[in-house]
Design a protein that fits this description.
The structure is a homodimer of 218-residue chains. The N and C termini of chain A lie far apart (44 Å). The radius of gyration of chain A is 19 Å and the shape is elongated. Chain A is mostly helical. The first copy, chain A, contains six helices and no strands. At the A-B interface, helix 2, helix 3, helix 5 and helix 6 of A face helix 2, helix 3, helix 5 and helix 6 of B.
C-alpha cells in the first residue's frame, strides 16, 4: 500500500514541477511582452493561464482522491495537505503573470514601461525568473538549503520594489499619473509572485524538517 | 465515530465564524483609522492581525488531526479540505485589512485619503463590511442563495474600484502622485478582500451542492 502511495506522491510532484515550469515561462514571457509591447506574446500568456488552472484542478483531485483511498497519517498526510497549498500558490503565481501580460495588452501599441524605468523592471523580471527557477530545484529535490536561500532572494525583490516605488514618487518622475499607477501595480505583481515562492519554500522546509524555517542571514 | 466527526466539524465552523468576525472588525476599524487618521485604531488593527493568524494555525491543526483520526471520505473529506482553504482565505483577508491600517499609520498625522476621494473609499469600506457580514451567514447556515448573491456584491466592489481608479487618472486629479499610488493600492486591497469572500462562498456552494456556482443574474 505504502509503495503505491509514494508512487502517486511522485506523480503529484511531477505535476507541481510542470506547473512551476509553466509559471516560469509565463512570467518570463509576460515580462518580455511588457518591455517590448509585444501583443502576440501578451495574448499567449493570457490564454495559456488556463493550462495552469487546469493542472491545479487535476492536482487537487489527485491529492483528495489519494487521501480518500490511502488514508495517510502523520507526515504523509501533511505532505498531501501541503501539496494542496503549493498548487494554490502556483496557480496564483500564474494569475500574477497573467496580470502583467494584461497590462502589456492594455497599453499596446504603447510600451507600458517608461524608458527610464525599463532597467528596474528588467531586474524585477530577472529576479522573478531566478526565484522560480530555484523553486523548481526545491520542489524536485526537497532541497531545504535552497528553500532558505529563497527568503533572501525575496528580500532582493522587495528592495527592487521599494526602488521602483521610490522612483515614481521622486520629483524627477516626469510621466503621467496613469503611468505611475501602472508601475505601482506592476511592482506589486512581481513582489506578490515572489511572496508565493517564499510561501511554497517554507512549506517544503516544514514538511522536510518538521520545523518552521528561520530566515537565513541577510 | 461519525457523530464525533460532525461535532468536531461544528467546532471548526465555530472557529471560522470567529475568524470572520475578527476580519469584519479589522476591515471596519482599518477603514475608520484610514478616514479619520486615527493612529491608535490603526495600531490596534495591525496588532490584532496575529489573533487571526493564530486561529488559522489552530484551525489547520484541528482539520489535519481530524483527517488523521477519523479518516473521512467523500463529502466529509471535501468539507475538511475546503475548510483548510477557507481559513487561508480568511487569513489573507486579515492581511489586507492590516495593509489598509498600515497605510493609515504611514501617512499619520495626515489623512491618507484626499477629501474628494473620501466618499468612494467610504463606499468601498461599507461594501467590504456588507460582503463579509453576508459571508458569516453563508458559513453559519451553509446558505447557498446568499453564496450566489456574494458574486453580485463583488461586482459592486469592482465597480467602485474602477470608479476610484478612474478618478485618479482623470485630468481633475489635483493631488500628488504619491496620493494616486496610495489610492491605487488601497482600491486593490478592498477589491482583493472582496475576491477572497467570493472564493469562500464558491467553496461553500460547491461543498453543499457538488456543483460549481454559476453567477447569479447581474
Amino acid at each position: 500500500m505504502r509503495d503505491i502511495f509514494h508512487e502517486e506522491l511522485e506523480g503529484i510532484t511531477a505535476q507541481q514541477l510542470k506547473m512551476t515550469a509553466l509559471v516560469k515561462d509565463a512570467i518570463e514571457q509576460a515580462t518580455l511582452a511588457l518591455l517590448t509591447a509585444d501583443l502576440q506574446t501578451a495574448e499567449k500568456v493570457i490564454q495559456d493561464d488556463v493550462a495552469v488552472d487546469s493542472i491545479q484542478h487535476d492536482l487537487d483531485e489527485r491529492s483528495i482522491s489519494l487521501m480518500a483511498r490511502q488514508q495517510p497519517v502523520a507526515s504523509d498526510l501533511r505532505t498531501l495537505v501541503s501539496s494542496l497549498r503549493i498548487s494554490a500558490d502556483l496557480e496564483r503565481m500564474g494569475d500574477l503573470a497573467h496580470h502583467i501580460a494584461k497590462l502589456a495588452r492594455m497599453r499596446f501599441p504603447n510600451k507600458a514601461v517608461p524608458e527610464d524605468t525599463v532597467a528596474i523592471v528588467t531586474d524585477m523580471g530577472k529576479a522573478a525568473s531566478r526565484i522560480v527557477e530555484k523553486l523548481a530545484v526545491v520542489l524536485e529535490f526537497r532541497d531545504i538549503n535552497r528553500a532558505l536561500e529563497i527568503e533572501k532572494d525575496d528580500d532582493e525583490m522587495d528592495k527592487l520594489q521599494r526602488t521602483l516605488i521610490g522612483s515614481l514618487l521622486a520629483p524627477t518622475w516626469k510621466h503621467s499619473v496613469e503611468s505611475a499607477v501602472d508601475m505601482a501595480f506592476l511592482s506589486r505583481y512581481y513582489e506578490r509572485f515572489s511572496d508565493h515562492v517564499v510561501s511554497i519554500a517554507q512549506r517544503v522546509y516544514y514538511t522536510e524538517t518538521g520545523e518552521f524555517a528561520k530566515k537565513a542571514d541577510s
